[in-house]
Design goal:
With 91 residues, this protein is mostly beta strands. It contains 1 helix and 5 strands; from the N terminus they run βββββα. A 5-stranded antiparallel beta sheet has the order 3-2-1-4-5, with no helix packed on it.
């Protein structure tokens, strides 16, 4: 099944992806099958096997379909640091 990442908490190692029908699927980092991938970024396209358990729908065997989107999205969210040596004009 194909879907998109809705959210992912990198610190906690889980998030959610939406399927083509709009259903939400729980995603745990241990289900990410691409080498070196340990987290997802909102908006990434993924492919996964849907499964259900007593807690609800979950995604298994999650494969990235758009790895560059995630890397670019992560870089753009970095905060710019202040330049050193220039005094702040804020009061």
């Amino acid at each position: 099944m194909r879907g998109k990442v809705i959210s992912f908490n990198r610190n906690r190692g889980f998030g959610f992806a939406s399927g083509p029908d709009g259903r939400s699927f729980f995603v745990h980092y241990t289900e990410l099958i691409d080498p070196g991938v340990t987290f997802l970024v909102e908006g990434q396209e993924v492919e996964f096997t849907p499964a259900s358990d007593p807690r609800g729908d979950r995604a298994t065997q999650v494969h990235l379909r758009s790895p560059r989107v995630g890397a670019q999205a992560f870089r753009t969210r970095r905060r710019k640091s202040r330049q050193r040596g220039a005094p702040s004009t804020d009061s």
